[in-house]
Amino acid sequence: MQAGQDVGGLEEATRQFLETRPRLFGIAYRVLGSAAEAEDVVQDAWVRWQKADRTDVVEPAAFLATMTTRLAINTAQSARVRREAYVGPWLPEPIDTGTDPHVGAERAEAVEMAVLLLMEKLNPVERAAYVLREAFDYPYKQLAVILETSEGNARQLVSRARKHLSAERREQVGRTEHKRLLAVFLTAARSGHLETLEQVLAADVVSYADGGGIRGASRIPVVGRTHVSKYLAAFAPRFWPGSDVHWVEANDRSAVLVESAGKAVALLCADVSTAGIDRLMWVMNPDKLAPYASSVQAAGN
After folding, report:
1. Among residues 172, 171, 205, 198, which one has the least CA distance to residue 184?
2. Alpha-carbon Rg of the chain, whole angstroms?
3. Are 122 and 153 in contact (CB under 8 A)?
4. Which residues pair with 186 in a beta bridge?
């Protein structure tokens, strides 16, 4: 940062941090796919901000975004090792975007569950570059400073991320059609109606169930329209009776929260393209599900 006037004492530093905090969380969450890890990163940034020599900081928001991004990249690098040992499929931790639609962003880019899942295949620096550019519209010159690279390389990082995501994901349907197809799927899944399930699922659909080794979820993804349909039909008599379903918003898309005996047992999210439902994402790990359910309840959804 360029030399400039002192930004003030701790009171002013606190104001500046709180003003920037939504964006900091938005950056960290998108890079990590975990609200808990993002909160830890933001807290670490706050501690460092208090201890920093702020007299030379001209743009506190830019300084804090740079610090948070670099902390998130470091956390993502260590998280990759932990996730390799994760029991069963790993899914991002859902967030209630009904109360904070953009999670600190001007746009809701890179916050959908499927996008966060696909970004796991990128390295942490590519992920950060994509998030900063697509969700927060940072100019490439600033990206280069934050990522400690050249402007040309920053462009390449974003380009590679875009190409990877476009190759992995079809053109998405609008919100209304997304909810309509998810509703049709939900009715068919609860009744075990094979024909309807096969009509709404894409031929190469993948169903992921993240139980984290705690719940009795499938420990491998189920792939293909026929296999997924038969799996869900067989699953229906054991899972749905006695359950209540609630329409909610998760990661900027309609989703379904499933409760049993008043306790959340699953959050169903779907990735829906013009070919049908491409991905089913069942978040069943209590450590991921409980914070989301509490947020929904607190908001009165």
Report:
1. 198
2. 21
3. no
4. none
